[in-house]
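hiii so um. not sure if this is the right channel but i have a protein structure encoded as tokens and i wanna go backwards to a sequence. like what aa goes where. can anyone help
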């Protein structure tokens, strides 16, 4: 059987437990042991399993290859949670492969059998496992949110986006950014002189004082900084 392999990690930093190299090893071992041909391995890095195929280039390429008849099926490492972490996404992907006449195999379970109206328990068990994977993802996300909130309550940087203008993060702690603090002081000085937000933005730009990412100032961004 010709397989189109698919591997995925949720973040670029996911190198432990079940990273891309280990996933590839499992894909190749499964194909070799079963006498299958692994035509190609597609990869999605930093793509959560909750995303649909259209937002995962690697998965989309694999599905299209199967639909074109370039492979007999899709092979994923581990279990179906590597394919999808939400039940509705999992079922949509499986349905798409089966509709095109392909099969789906997972290295720890073998073939994921297509729905059979005479065996409703088969579908129920697969979907139940999909719900468990979705619940696990939600619990992990909740723990991360709680950790960030606790960090913020202690005065640390919670990790939600970039630190405010005038601050920067060092080892997860917020410290004053001297350059940005000086720009803020200049803003307040100009505001005290009676200048409006647009006039302040124009003056800052003229003086070569840039925003956090080195860009130009606009009235709205000046207003937000001064409102803090």
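sure thing!! here u go:
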């Amino acid at each position: 059987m010709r397989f189109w392999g698919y591997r995925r990690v949720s973040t670029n930093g996911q190198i432990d437990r079940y990273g891309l190299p280990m996933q590839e090893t499992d894909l190749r071992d499964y194909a070799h042991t079963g006498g299958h041909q692994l035509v190609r391995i597609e990869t999605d890095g930093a793509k959560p399993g909750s995303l649909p195929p259209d937002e995962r280039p690697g998965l989309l390429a694999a599905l299209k290859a199967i639909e074109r008849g370039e492979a007999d099926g899709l092979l994923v490492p581990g279990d179906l949670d590597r394919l999808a972490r939400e039940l509705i996404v999992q079922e949509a992907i499986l349905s798409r492969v089966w509709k095109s006449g392909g099969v789906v195999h997972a290295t720890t379970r073998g073939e994921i059998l297509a729905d059979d109206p005479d065996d409703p328990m088969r579908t129920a068990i697969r979907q139940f496992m999909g719900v468990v994977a979705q619940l696990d993802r939600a619990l992990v996300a909740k723990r991360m949110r709680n950790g960030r909130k606790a960090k913020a309550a202690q005065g640390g940087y919670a990790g939600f986006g970039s630190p405010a203008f005038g601050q920067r993060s060092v080892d997860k702690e917020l410290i004053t950014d001297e350059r940005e603090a000086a720009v803020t002081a200049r803003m307040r000085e100009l505001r005290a002189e009676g200048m409006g937000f647009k006039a302040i933005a124009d003056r800052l730009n003229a003086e070569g004082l840039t925003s956090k990412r080195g860009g130009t100032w606009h009235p709205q961004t000046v207003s937000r900084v001064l409102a803090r």
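oh and Helices lie at 20-34, 57-67, 87-99, 120-153, 178-192, 197-206, 219-227.
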